[in-house]
Amino acid sequence: MSIELPRSAIIVLDRLANEGPMTPKDLSNKVNLAPRTVSFALRKLMGQKLCRKIPNLSDMRQPLYAADEERARQLRMKFEHVFRQILV
What we know:
Distance between the termini: 23 Å
Strand content: 5-15%
Strand order of the largest sheet: 1-2
CATH class: Mainly Alpha
């Protein structure tokens, strides 16, 4: 597993892994990144199979994104020094 992820994707993955599924809008507000940046990060994470899109039963217009907790944990353990620098 390589860490070919932009800084924004690592931030979004960390938030999803720690707080659970969220909409892109909620993520944007919580991590203080532009909605477009969050969408880009989510596409990268989905491409690496680090997160998945799930239906939001309370508002079908806004999908939820959830981290693959096992893969996220493995990535964090393997690249702890990178995560530490980005998430400070």
